[in-house]
Amino acid sequence: MPGRVIVVKRRDKLGWLERLYVPMIVKGLRVTAGHFFRNLRGFITGKNRTDFVVQWPEEQVDYPDAFRGMPVLVQLPDGQPRCVACGLCEFACPTDCISIVPGELEGAGIERYPEAFDIDMSRCMFCGLCEEACPEEAIVMSRNVEIATYDRASMTYRKEDLLVPEDYLKRRLDFLRDEYDRVDEPPSGPERS
Ligand code: SF4
Ligand code: SF4
Fold first, then answer.
1. For the whole model, what pTM was predicted?
2. Which residue ranges form the domains of the chain, and what is each CATH number?
3. Pairing state between β 98-104 and 163-165
4. What are the φ/ψ torsions at residue 34 (nearest 5 degrees)?
5. Which residues line ligand 2 (CB under 6 A)?
6. In this structure, which residue's CA is closest to atom 6 in ligand 2?
7. How far apart are CA 83 and CA 114, in angstroms?
8. Vertex 74, ends 103 and 145: CA angle to 5°?
9. pLDDT value, residue 57
10. In terms of Cα–Cα distance, which of 162, 158, 123, 110 is closest to 141?
11. DSSP character string of 19-78
């Protein structure tokens, strides 16, 4: 349910009527009252409702594809992260909230994987730079913003907490490929060798 964008023109100088303020206050009240009665009528009759009230958490907002919630790790069908622990997201993060410990994956086609991958969400500002820096589409911004807790320690998300199956992130991944004109998606699973 996306909101309407209204562009308001701003003038440098106020007219004499505007400088009196009272007519402007009355004008503002008229607009507010107009919205109130229109929405009240819509609420009573159930028709032409223009209000934007979401009864959260019972009702959820379907955020647009460009929305950036908390960053998560893409989980391949075999349960492994797509991440190859290159460290680019860690380097790109402006708040230093990503910590990666790389490990070697014996017998696999790829050399490195994240033995540990932590994000301190209390410092993350959902900027998406980690997602932009990642060459593997391994870290993406999810739609989840409901991460409030009562203590700071539980704001540190470990690799296991961050893994989200690729299918659940399809909308965001499609959006990114479109946004960055990526033709091919990175190979996954055994094809990565
Ligand atoms: S979204 Fe921004 S602040 Fe958060 S982990 Fe990614 S780069 Fe760091
Ligand atoms: S998430 Fe991407 S950028 Fe970060 S370490 Fe893994 S592969 Fe590299």
1. 0.74
2. 1-56 (no CATH), 71-187 (3.30.70.3270)
3. unpaired
4. -60, -45
5. 83-89, 100, 133-134, 136, 138-139
6. 83
7. 7
8. 120
9. 86
10. 162
11. HT-HHHHHHHHHHHHHHHHHHHHHHHH-SS-------TTTS-----TT---SEEEEEPTT
Nearest-CA residue for ligand 1 atom 5 is 124
What is the dihedral angle through the alpha carbons of 189, 164, 131, 69, rounded to the nearest 10 degrees? 170
Could you read off the pLDDT tens digit of each residue along the chain, which spans 193 residues? 556 778 888 877 888 887 888 998 999 999 999 988 988 888 888 777 766 678 888 988 888 899 999 999 999 998 999 999 999 999 999 999 999 999 988 776 667 899 999 999 999 999 999 999 999 999 999 999 999 999 999 999 999 999 999 999 999 999 999 988 776 666 554 444 3
DSSP type of residue 118: E
Q: Which numbered ligand comes closest to the C-alpha of 93?
A: 1
- What is the CA 30 to chain-centroid distance, rounded? 36
Output the CA angle 71-170-184, nearest 5 degrees: 100
